[in-house]
């Protein structure tokens, strides 16, 4: 519980910093606050547009980080493999591919909207994830005729590799400006939405993540293998289907919010798995994991807005950068374990 | 084949049971029946189909993973074994560097009842409760798994090599615990590589060879030791020889 409270406090501090950091620096922000009679509220009023943009950035980054870390933990348990991440089964690849095909071939841009405000790419993102799920289902049930964890992981690799190869063929012909646009989806960058769009998107990111947290105990049991889970009363087929369904929604919503952000879903479950051995309520550990995920992505988002300002590099670049020292720490902890035993 | 006959609503009744995957037959025409209160020891050479038979009895072989079966296998009156009827302990169980022994024993179940506390005491797990699973030795992990399996509130126990990695003193404890469960009227099936160790506790012995049940015997006086040796020495058996 202590770790959970500490992580929440850290997220709060990072969130506040996120509101103040950006190409317009914190100094500018406080300067304008002093100008408008020293109150934060009036400063916010005076910089309404920037505030909205940054709030949306922070909210989407936190929600996406939370969801990706939760999905990463679920997939690692489901596939009984600590190298799994939310992208391993290819659902986000399907979603990203549909979005990119829409941008490359359909007469629309990332900014095109339907009914005045729903971004058209959202339809493609959700369509792509659902198509990938249907494809996986068909491949495993009708062709491979095996629905076990190794088959699922291999089918996911196959889908990921196929889509990546197909997309690369098209990327090779893109102009530099087209490539920048494409990069924001493939590497992951928080998309510049308005409040209303973000509020619509948030439940699609958070609800499946909370659902996965609810399934954490059965998933933890399934990490000991199918036989163990089943003889302890877990309907493994149903569990797998539910997780994949939640992951489909979550992947599509995360792609809409931030493209295909890597490393968070792999790194954070590794970091939190051994953080503390405290045995408490079953939701505490997965929630802690999710909040750490939110902290990592908000932190990466702040870095992307400040380190190279006014140029904003995709947030995925910084999650990759952040993952290096953390993964090294995980490695070192392994060495300590070996020395101890 | 068996001396006693179990009714379909009680115990284990297997009739002409076949299990295969693709074109590979693993269990062929097995027929046996066991009443509640029996302890069956299943022996056979590596790859003879013992473990697959046990998993199929536990209802763990899913058609979605390519398994096919025919015949009937009724466990406690369920005409097709339900996977959560029995307490099952398989050969392989992944480990976790997240959970401690205490967390593992409490995972979706209670480890606080009197019987559970007795098991923890008997298997001397108190001092291990805060140790991570990944830091346990092979024998310790086996005791933890055994405790977890025996904690399940079930009248049927299916155990695949529960004595693996246990030293002699812990094997004695294992057989004491299983004998106690059997005396409560519970049905126990144990796959073993050293069936003679269970001589005191078992009520039935069965031998598998190439997926076929060669014998299932309940009379201790005619315990087919010689037959067992022949199974393990790998001599080809004529099925007529198997009727003791």
CATH superfamily of one domain in chain B: P-loop containing nucleotide triphosphate hydrolases
Question: Helical segment tally of chain B?
Answer: 6
Instruction: Give Rg of chain B in angstroms.
Output: 18 Å
Rg of chain A (C-alpha, Å)? 21 Å
Mean pLDDT of chain A: 85
| Poorly predicted segments of chain B | 236-244
The major pleated sheet of chain A works out as: 2 strands, antiparallel
Looking at how many chains there are and whether they match, the oligomeric state comes to heterodimer
The proportion of residues forming helix of chain B, as a percent range, comes to 25-40%
Poorly predicted residue ranges of chain A: none
Strand content of chain B: 25-35%
Give the beta-strand count of chain B: 9
CATH topology of one domain in chain B: Rossmann fold
Order of helices and strands of chain B: EEEHEEHHHEHEEEH
**Helix fraction bin of chain A:** over 70%
Distance between the termini of chain B: 10 Å
Task: Give an overview of the whole structure.
The complex is a heterodimer of chains A (341) and B (244). The model of chain A has no long low-confidence stretch (mean pLDDT 85). Chain A starts with a helix and ends with a helix. Chain A has a single domain (2-340), classed as ABC transporter involved in vitamin B12 uptake, BtuC. In chain A, 47% of the residues are buried. The longest helix of chain A has 31 residues, at 48-78. Chain A has 15 helices and 2 strands. With 341 residues, chain A is an all-alpha fold. A two-stranded antiparallel ribbon of chain A has the order 1-2. Helices cover 76% and strands 1% of the residues of chain A. With 244 residues, chain B is of the alpha/beta class. Chain B has a domain at 12-93 and 157-242: P-loop containing nucleotide triphosphate hydrolases (Rossmann fold), CATH 3.40.50. Helix content of chain B is 25%, strand content 25%. Chain B contains 6 helices and 9 strands, in the order βββαββαααβαβββα. Chain B has helices spanning 50-57, 101-106, 114-122, 138-151, 168-183, 225-233; strands spanning 12-21, 24-34, 39-44, 67-75, 87-89, 156-160, 187-191, 204-209, 212-217. Chain B has a 6-stranded mixed beta sheet with strand order 5-6-7-3-8-9, sandwiched between helices. A 3-stranded antiparallel beta sheet of chain B has the order 2-1-4, covered by helices on one side. Chain B is globular and about 45 Å long. The chains are: A mainly alpha (341), B alpha/beta (244). At the A-B interface, helix 10 and helix 11 of A face helix 2 of B.
